């Protein structure tokens, strides 16, 4: 099917990937019909601020990606609060919750993921929260108030960002992490240790290698019993232990699915006219294996790949994976391989300085720069991306010398 024969593109999921796909399609001169289907009532919005600014500055924070007028200007039919219940891959139709059927020439699944559940905590009913969408974030605004005792289960990115927000609101915060490190899946030990120290300096009680044996309600308190028998009492518990991709539609449609929807380098599923992008997709990587990447950048990247492939436009080679987190007024940015063999510091790690501290970490394997981290040094991130992309050899006398301008070292 040529681009001139594509009359209708349906995008399921009105989040980052779905919105980016619309912008890319129109930017590449697609003139056909676009239907955006979402199960939320909202217009497409950014998710990174949900754990930070939406909680700290709810009246000032704008997270909308595409306004109602912008959707009209782009010629997009937006169906909100009416999710998809079935895909008929052979007939190339989808069925909505209200029973309506829509036909498509190309379909993009950008359904994201749902919070991985802790049923024993969910069973308590009240005072237990997760954070995945705008309603979840808004619900936490009145909960995170000065003096409140908050237990956060999970020491990943969301857990630490929420811990930071809760401390900014003068809550008493405890983080419970089963693993031996905070952000253990996405951060090397040298940076994880800094993150941990910053949280503890800010007054967060972080418990590592800690398991939960039980939980219960005692009046208006949540009582969490640890494996060693210690009881922690809180006014509220928020848990964030990862997500489960919203892949059931693809499973029911007979598409190739492992943990998520498997896609090729063009973001096509096992059905040539059905694509997937963002948190719901697991893509074939350079390592020869399918892997899923939960980042804002990856959602945009895969949406762009989908749009360009549909339009017959060559898409660029992907940059090294990049993401960021803001915690306690500190900006951390990560790029490339976080499992590098060794990490070397350009600058000085000084936890006591907090927001004033600024440095760069080089991740090196077999003498080659494969990863990088900036701490309050966002301007250097583009240089790290270039060095990793060109597989530059690491030269300590150059890259660790603060008298040399990193920008001038990257050619």
From TrEMBL:
Highest taxon of the lineage: Bacteria
GO molecular function terms listed in the Swiss-Prot or TrEMBL record: oxidoreductase activity, acting on NAD(P)H
Ranges of residues in domain Reductase C-terminal: 322-410
Cofactor(s) this protein cannot do without: FAD
InterPro entries on file: FAD-oxidoreductase/Apoptosis (IPR050446), FAD/NAD-bd_sf (IPR036188), FAD/NAD-binding_dom (IPR023753), FAD/NAD-linked_Rdtase_dimer_sf (IPR016156), Reductase_C (IPR028202), Ring-hydroxylating_dioxygenase (IPR053382)
Protein name (Swiss-Prot/TrEMBL): FAD-dependent oxidoreductase
Domain FAD/NAD(P)-binding: 8-303
This protein's UniProt keywords: FAD, Flavoprotein, Oxidoreductase
GO CC term (a single one): cytoplasm
PANTHER family, alphabetized: APOPTOSIS-INDUCING FACTOR 1 (PTHR43557), RIESKE DOMAIN-CONTAINING PROTEIN-RELATED (PTHR43557:SF2)
């Amino acid at each position: 099917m040529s681009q001139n024969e594509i009359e209708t593109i349906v995008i399921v999921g009105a989040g980052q990937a779905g919105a980016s796909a619309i912008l890319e399609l129109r930017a590449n001169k697609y003139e056909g019909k676009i239907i955006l289907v979402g199960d939320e009532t909202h217009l497409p919005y950014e998710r990174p601020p949900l754990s930070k600014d939406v909680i700290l500055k709810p009246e000032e924070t704008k997270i909308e990606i595409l306004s109602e007028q912008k959707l009209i200007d782009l010629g997009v039919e937006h169906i909100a609060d009416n999710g998809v219940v079935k895909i008929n891959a052979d007939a190339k139709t989808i069925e909505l919750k209200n029973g309506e059927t829509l036909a498509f020439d190309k379909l993009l699944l950008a359904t994201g993921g749902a919070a991985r559940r802790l049923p024993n905590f969910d069973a308590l009913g009240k005072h237990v929260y997760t954070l995945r969408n705008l309603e979840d974030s808004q619900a936490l605004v009145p909960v995170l108030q000065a003096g409140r005792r908050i237990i956060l289960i999970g020491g990943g990115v969301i857990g630490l960002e929420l811990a930071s927000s809760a401390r900014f609101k003068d809550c008493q915060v405890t983080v419970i992490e089963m693993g031996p490190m905070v952000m253990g899946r996405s951060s090397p030990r040298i940076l994880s240790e800094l993150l941990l120290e910053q949280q503890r300096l800010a007054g967060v009680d972080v418990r590592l290698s800690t398991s939960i044996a039980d939980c219960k309600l005692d009046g208006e308190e949540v009582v969490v019993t640890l494996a060693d028998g210690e009881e922690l009492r809180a006014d509220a518990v928020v848990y964030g232990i990862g997500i489960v991709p919203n892949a059931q539609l693809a499973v029911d449609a007979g598409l190739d699915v492992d943990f998520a929807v498997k896609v090729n380098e063009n973001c096509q599923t096992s059905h040539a006219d059905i694509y997937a992008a963002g948190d719901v997709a697991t893509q074939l990587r350079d390592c020869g294996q399918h892997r899923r990447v939960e980042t804002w950048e990856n959602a945009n990247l895969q949406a762009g790949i989908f749009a360009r492939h549909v339009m017959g436009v060559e898409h660029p080679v992907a940059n090294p994976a990049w993401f960021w987190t803001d915690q306690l007024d500190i900006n951390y940015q990560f790029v490339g391989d976080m499992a590098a063999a060794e990490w070397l510091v350009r600058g000085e790690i000084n936890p006591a300085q907090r927001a004033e501290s600024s440095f760069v970490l080089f991740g090196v394997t077999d003498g080659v720069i494969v990863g990088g981290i900036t701490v309050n040094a966002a301007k250097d991130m583009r240089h790290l991306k270039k060095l990793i992309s060109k597989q530059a050899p690491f030269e300590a006398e150059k890259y660790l010398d603060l008298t040399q301008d990193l920008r001038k070292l990257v050619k």
